[in-house]
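User: Okay, second chain of the day. Same drill as before: sequence in, structure tokens out.
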Amino acid sequence: MKRAIVLAVLAAGIAGCQGMAAKMARLDVGTQRDQVIERLGPPDSDRTMIGFEVMSWLDRRPGRFSLSHRDYTVVLKEGKVVQFGPGLIRRDGKTTLQIETDDP
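Assistant: Same drill. Structure tokens below.
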């Protein structure tokens, strides 16, 4: 019985992680800002860095808690997507940004 509960919890966690990845796959470079929000929902963070708009989503289970999580970032210039994917943003020089992942 305990094993079944553990497996159910793990399966739910894995299924939750797949949700945002599938939504992100629907984006393309050049996608308009309003379409991004329509497809992904409102961002958890929306800020401006060196002329770019940076929106981030924290992919966690309801209540903002999960055994694992992955954050996703969309970078826009003049209202259009120029970069997107898993990870958080970092400044890469004076005029560029880079999405950085935790993957080795």
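The chain has a mean pLDDT of 82.

User: Thanks, on to the next one.
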